[in-house]
Amino acid sequence: MTSGTPSMPLLQQELLLDSAPRSSRPLRLIARAVLVVFLNAVIWPSWAVAVEIDQQQQLEEQQRWLQDNQQLDQVLANLRDHISQQRQQVLNKQNAEQGFVSRALSFVGFGEDALPDNPSQRFQQRLNELRQDTENSLAQEAARLQEHGLPAVVLERQQQLQAQILARYQQLQEQLTAATQEQSLDDQEQQLNALNDLLNSFSIGNPRDPFDPEQLPWGTPDPKLTPEPAQDAKLLSQRYDLPLFEQGVQLASNVITPDMLGNPGGPVQADLDATLDAPLSPAIIAKAGELNNDPVAIYQWVRNNVEYIPSYGSVQGAEYTLTYQKGNAFDTASLLVALLRAANVPARYAFGTVRMPAASVMNWVGNVQVPEAAGNLLGQGGVPSKMLVSGGQVTHFELEHVWVEAWIDYLPSRGAKHSVGDSWIPMDASYKQYEYQDGMGLDQAIPFDAQALADTILQQTTINEAEGWAQGIPQQDIAQALDDYQARLKEHINSQTPDATVGDVLGTAAIKTVVRESLAASLPYELRTRKLVASALTDNQRWKFKYTLGSSQYGQMGNILLSVNQPTALLAGKKLALSFAPASEADEQTLTSYLPEPDANGDIDPAAVPDTLPGYLIHLNGEFTIGSEIAAATSSSVTMGTELLSEMGYWQPGRGWRTSQNKPIAGEYRALALDLHGVSPAQADALKNDLENTQQKITAEDYTDLGKQQLVGDLLYATILSYFALNNVQDDIAARQANMVSYKAPSYGLFKTNVTPLYWFGIPRNVKVDGLVMDVDHITHLLAHKNNDTQQWINYNRTTGARLSAMEHLVPEQMFGTPDHPANGISAVKALQLAAAEGQKIWTITRTNLDIALNGLQLPASVETDIRNSVYAGKEVTAHEKPVSFFGKSSIGYTVLDPETGAGAYLIGGGDNGGELLGFSLVLGLFMFFASVAVLSFLAAPGFLALLALSWIAINFYFWVRGIENAQNHQQFNTNNAMAALALSLGFLPRVTFDVAAMILFVDAWIFMLGFI
């Protein structure tokens, strides 16, 4: 201060003597000088820097917002999320204001003011821009349709869609305006609820397939669900709808002899007829002829060549069993029946509960070392069985079984010379014993140092056991350790047995062949119930597969459009597909009009093919094909891009249906493959020939008989079938290495063109094809550790699941990639690997850390819902923090595992969530309210409080300036202003008249306002 500045005691004295007129001029000069110093030395430079930082951050934020809201579907999705957040804030505010005064004010019409919602205004502006773009594009589309002279029905569809879209634009804009207008909290809540309901009624993104954590797609069947074997013929008859007694006296016409007349137990015509499970196909007839139509040779060939699979019911039928040479007792019996009938030998099925020695059963099902493992396998396969204990040891098994009876010329040659049959002779070609040869014992000769690898992982990985995540997993070290071990194994094998086969390395299993010139008159085991016989299997003894397609209504099946339900024996080895075709000539013309014209050579430039099609203009009929035949067609046409709902799955004897649901999009091609008990080499060869024939026709420009199945379907089907075939080979090798016994149980999956609808307010306007997708909904193995070690079984299931997931990206990459143009696929395992390589935390989520994990994840709400539901169902989830970018797409991978079985789901989920933070209008409004009250209060204040008010304002002014000076961003800048405004309000309580304080307050207020502007 200068020497002319009065001291504080003098200033107090002058104030007390009411001498303001004499001192006001120098005080004004002092105040102005202080303000100039503050403004020039501290406030303005700091404030300018803060404003510049704030403007830059606002610009970057605006650019990000525009990037995330380019298309209408993005705007609607982000607006829906924002409105949900706004609703929650309103509810929180209402819950916080439930006192008596608030309720009283609300009662008389003075409730809480609505929360401001500036972000919604930004959405409103963007919607207006998109509306103009939409109107222009619709007008151009209408002009194009007229230019191409398309039928009137297509033009009407275009006009109807235009009216619907514009009406929904108008409805949304009106509702959004109503929700952002000034109103009370109660009114705002009602408007936000209405807006939220409207937004939720719009389909926005590609639909997600339903996921039920109680029905994990990959695993092993529960043996506990298999009933015990029937103990009498009556119960067996009731279970499978079998005839309780032999049928009639009608004899087979081509084997009738005078001595057979009146014999009630002789053959009937049905014992020579072809059936669904035992057809008399050319392959069957040729094989019977190759065996000289000799019943003894036929029986011995089937018994000595067809390997047993411990499952129950007719799965693949006689013809597929002939080519695959593996099957369960039903399929083996069907093959034997078919071959005998092709040789003109009457044959029939026989059923009953039998008792077998435990040691024989253990050998029969895969050389397991304990009876419990054999019982486990039989139970998983659905074979009704139980173990019998004597002297504390399991000595025998009882199980329901099927075998064959043939009408053989048994006397006197016991079938060695067959002419005219005279007796029903039992033949069981499925029950047999094996010779097992051990492999090289690599796990003992070249042990893998798992502990060293575990130590390396622990040293280099950050693990938070309390929260349940790991970070920085050394993937390269793991891969290097596995590569090194593989090299050591290869070196050892080459040094020991250079020409070693897979059997030499892993061990072999060979059927103990039986070669006899005659037949036995009895079974090789004890029959515990009276046998039942039938010429054909009943429907209750057959596995079945169904595919149902319908409209989707709130996630549930609506109108059924098509349905297929067939025994799997009819579908074995056949291509299945769901595809779509134009419903009328007008639809075909519309579709053709969007394809580019061929050049002078008749070629079409692939780059000229449009990225999207106006799906709403094109109506389609769905077709489900089995092989080359259309098995079912939709009862009515659907619009391209329409979300549908499908249900498919197996019916198993004794267990019923197990199905999965998907959401196809009208216009996709879905190739389905059934992997029943494995893929036969003949099936793979036939598919290979089909692909080669198609390629030759295209090369020769011969397009006759080439349809969508040959051009698209076969390649898609080859991909999903290759997935199953390669995994089956790897399953066999891995199981032998791990001391497991594994059989493939009926499974299914699909490979499809990925059609994505682009929605305009829930209306699928355009569609685009953006890649190919593999979806394997059901993979099942019959699996047991040879010593029935449960933990080893669980570990193997988990390991197998990870490999199956990896193959979902590896197989398509191999099918569609070349060395020069590699394909790039994604799977759950790959997404997790990419996330780990980025340094993301990999979470293992259970009930103990669910809340912590969800707070640490930045994944879409739909994925987090899957995680939450899975954990509540007792499952263990592995997920990464946030989406990974993979070739321009956002990808997510997460696994859901059953800790008690190792069964799992390996899922991919995509998409980003957008949101908007509250703006600063609320803070600005509060400050202006306090400032206006303060100005009015200064007009008539007692003089003795002026000094107190001035001191308080000066202190607040000082800390406010320091806060501005230290602010690093817009949020800190405004937080400081808000706190200063709150502190200032306390200084307004004393009503002072001192004009220096009033002047400082006014300057203070305006600088606050400038800071917010």
Describe this structure in words.
The protein is an alpha+beta fold. Strands 1, 16, 17, 18, 19, 20, 23, 24 and 25 form a nine-stranded mixed sheet that branches. Strands 4, 5, 6, 7, 12 and 13 form a six-stranded antiparallel sheet that branches. The longest helix has 49 residues, at 20-68. The model is unreliable at 1-23, 105-111, 248-263, 910-953 and 984-1013 (pLDDT under 50).
Defining traits:
disordered C terminus, 30 helices, 31 strands, 1013 residues, alpha+beta, nine-stranded mixed sheet, 46% helix
Shape: globular
Strand content: 15-25%
What is the total tally of β strands?
A: 31
User: How big is the Rg?
Assistant: 40 Å
Task: List the topology elements.
Elements: H1 8-16, H2 20-68, H3 72-96, H4 100-107, H5 118-147, H6 152-180, H7 185-200, E1 218-219, H8 233-240, H9 282-290, H10 295-305, E2 307-308, H11 317-324, E3 326-327, H12 329-342, E4 347-357, H13 358-364, H14 371-380, E5 385-390, E6 393-408, E7 423-427, E8 434-438, H15 442-445, H16 450-460, E9 462-464, E10 469-471, H17 475-496, H18 502-506, E11 507-511, E12 526-527, E13 532-534, E14 544-553, E15 556-567, H19 568-571, E16 576-582, H20 585-593, E17 612-613, E18 619-626, E19 629-633, E20 638-639, E21 644-652, E22 656-662, E23 670-675, H21 681-699, H22 708-737, E24 740-760, E25 763-785, H23 790-816, H24 828-837, E26 842-845, H25 850-856, H26 861-872, E27 876-880, E28 884-886, E29 889-891, E30 893-897, E31 904-908, H27 921-937, H28 946-966, H29 970-987, H30 995-1012
Parallel strand pairs: 1-25, 2-3
Antiparallel strand pairs: 4-6, 4-12, 4-13, 5-6, 6-7, 8-11, 9-10, 10-26, 14-15, 14-21, 16-18, 16-23, 17-25, 18-19, 18-20, 21-22, 23-24, 24-25, 26-27, 27-30, 28-29, 30-31
Helix pairs in contact: 2-28, 2-30, 3-5, 3-7, 5-6, 6-7, 9-12, 10-12, 11-12, 21-22, 22-23, 27-29, 27-30, 28-29, 28-30
